[in-house]
Design brief:
heterodimer; A: 509 residues; alpha+beta; five-stranded antiparallel beta sheet; 35% helix; flat; B: 111 residues; alpha/beta
Chain lengths: 509, 111
């Protein structure tokens, strides 16, 4: 009997593929599919990025595992269904784009496109990077469209909130007077219509006197925290006089409460700020995209002391040609602004490294220097940018170091060495000379990159700490990256005065 | 940690000792501002008795050097402690700052 093998690569979707009665879809039985469709489905199922086909004049959906999170509860119903029925809410935008590509127009590519989707029981604001291209048969006829997509909602939303929050901090720092702050703050918040569709600051109401079943009652605000003094009025006492007296009591009590809670508030505020900075920072320290934990692992340990939140970051991703790009860095300062600046510098470094893939790490750092100057970021960042390119017998490591602690290499034979070269200056200061370094890493070598918190100790020379680290890493060449990173954090990264970011990279044997 | 600013005939001298870290930065920036306004003389940053610098301080030193060099005033740092010098070499600061080992060498450099 004929067994369809095309869906063997569907992973967790295999049951859905095999369970669907394709003869009831516009595509018909898989055995009858055109060679172009079969090739496209095979390619889709073997792709780790989110991909869907939109096939035929009705744009029928055939997608892979990585596309399912985008669909949420539209899956599995979306499989084999026309696009217009799956995404009626987005059809007004994507319909014309699909028609255009299908009728021979140019391929499309959109970044952070706003496409609200009806998912999880509501219309969700959502953003996507997506590209439509035509899929043709051997004789050149367009049979369908392929959509390669990644949802960017989390990044777009976090960036937007970060921008608003940073602007709010800047406003608070420079505005004079409470009245002006109230007015400007509301204007500023209103600019983010997504998070503040309607916003106002309203004064707490003053004295209110009302009649109820319990009798005539006065409500008086006490202090600034919204507490209200509620008093039933005595009809036998002159009301105007009584209210004047109650206001004096409320005022006296309120002042004392405000004074006492100010100290507590300050403490809470510091904790909240730290939490906020950490949250923002963690939202930017994502897992390396598309790289297994055995190959590239990242760890982040916050400083032991409460008052410090760092600007450390790490980043790793793979280019289509299998080159892996690695960045680790540290923005100077430890407050919420350092965390915000870190996010900007990290994003710039990532974007520049990805879009200038044919340029050397040093050249990319030079552009980063210029960008930080142009944008007047007024922060300093140490950073290493590295490219790991697969070559015969291992990898070629190319890197440039902007004043950052040198990485430690574990050779395939277990010997360790510190990859120290004469350091170029930290980024963001001027536009200094940038040097590139290069090394062949035989298959099975590992690399550990870290920020200065790992080796900086007040009473221990840095070189002693580096020696301890190389001792720890010696003969660990067989550890997968995840275990290597854990080892470093366990033995070195606890109780640090500063934040610590660690990135371990193991090249396969 | 202590911090001082003294005007001498040859230079404005900003001196720190002990461990300088994030908490020291505002004081250091103030001292540079005072030295900047005090005269048009070169500046010596005397870190010869400093035994540890946190990376946060490096930014303040760089800003200081830019602040004075923008006015064509020499900005010389005297730092002899091995761990301080090591921090300067790791961060590439050696390549852009005028660094000497002793206060005498700093005086000679601005003479």
């Amino acid at each position: 009997m004929y067994r369809e093998t095309l869906f063997d690569a569907a992973g967790s979707l295999r049951a859905d593929y095999e369970g669907l009665d394709w003869t009831r879809t516009a595509l018909g039985a898989p055995s009858s599919w055109s060679p172009a469709l079969r090739t496209a489905v095979d390619l889709t199922l073997h792709t780790r990025f989110g991909v869907t086909l939109l096939w035929g004049p009705e744009f029928v959906l055939v997608y892979n595992e990585a596309y399912v999170p985008l669909l949420a509860d539209k899956h599995p119903g979306a499989l084999g269904r026309p696009c217009r029925e799956v995404f009626p809410e987005a059809w007004g935008v994507i319909g014309p784009m699909l028609e255009s590509v299908y009728t021979g127009g140019e391929a499309t590519m959109d970044r952070d496109a706003y496409l609200p989707l009806q998912r999880r029981g509501r219309l969700e604001a959502a953003y996507f990077d997506f590209a439509y291209s035509a899929v043709r048969s051997d004789d050149g006829l367009i049979e369908g469209v392929i959509d390669i997509t990644a949802e960017t909602t989390a990044r777009v939303v976090t960036t937007r909130r970060m921008r608003t929050l940073t602007a709010l901090h800047e406003l608070i720092a420079r505005v004079e007077g409470a009245a002006r702050l109230r007015e400007r703050a509301v204007d500023l918040l209103r600019e983010d219509a997504e998070d503040f569709p309607s916003v106002s600051l309203q004064p707490a109401s003053g004295l209110v006197v009302a009649d109820s079943d319990a009798g005539r009652t006065a409500r008086l605000p006490v202090g600034g925290d919204g507490t209200v003094l509620v008093v039933r009025l005595n009809e036998q006492v002159d009301e105007e006089d009584h209210l004047g007296y109650l206001q004096l009591v409320a005022f006296t009590l309120g002042q004392a409460l405000d004074r006492l809670s100010a100290r507590e508030t300050e403490r809470d505020h510091a904790q909240l700020q730290r939490l906020m900075s950490e949250t923002l920072q963690h939202s930017f320290l994502t897992r390396p995209d598309g790289l297994s934990e055995d190959l590239v692992a990242t760890r982040y340990e916050p400083a032991a002391e409460l008052a410090q939140v760092g600007g450390d970051w790490h980043d790793a991703f793979r280019l289509p040609d299998r080159t892996v790009l690695l960045t680790i860095g540290d923005v100077s300062g430890h407050d919420r602004l350092a965390a915000a600046a870190m996010a900007q510098v990290k994003t710039m470094a990532r974007t520049l490294a990805a879009t200038r893939a044919d340029e050397s790490p040093g050249a990319v750092l030079r552009v980063l220097d210029e960008a930080m100057q142009t944008l007047s970021l007024d922060v300093f960042a140490s950073a290493i940018l590295a490219r790991l390119e697969p070559v015969d017998g291992g990898h070629r490591l190319r890197w440039s170091n902007a004043g950052h602690p040198p990485p430690v290499l574990i050779g395939a034979d277990g010997a360790t060495s510190v990859l120290e070269r004469p350091a170029d200056l930290m980024a963001g200061v001027t536009t200094p000379e940038r040097h590139d370094h290069e090394l062949h890493l035989p298959a099975g070598s590992s690399l550990v990159l870290f920020t200065d918190g790992l080796i900086e100790r007040r009473h221990v020379p840095i070189d002693d700490r580096l020696d301890l680290l190389t001792d720890l890493l010696r003969d660990r060449q067989d550890l997968p990256a995840g275990e290597l990173a854990d080892l470093v954090v366990e033995r070195f990264g606890r109780e640090c005065e500063d934040d610590v970011a660690v990135m371990a990279v193991s090249t396969p044997r | 940690m202590s911090l001082s600013h003294v005007s001498t005939d040859a230079a404005e001298v900003v001196r720190a000792d002990g461990e300088i870290d994030l908490a020291t930065v505002p004081g250091l920036v103030d001292a540079f501002d005072r030295a900047h306004q005090a005269s048009g003389k070169p500046v010596i940053v005397d870190l010869t008795d400093v035994v540890f610098v946190d990376s946060a301080v490096l930014g303040a030193l760089l800003r200081g050097s830019r602040q004075f060099e923008a006015d064509d005033r020499r900005f010389v740092i005297a730092a002899g402690h091995v761990s301080v010098r090591r921090t300067f070499s790791l961060t590439g600061l050696e390549t852009v700052l005028s660094l000497v080992d002793t206060l005498d060498a700093a005086r000679a450099a601005v003479a």
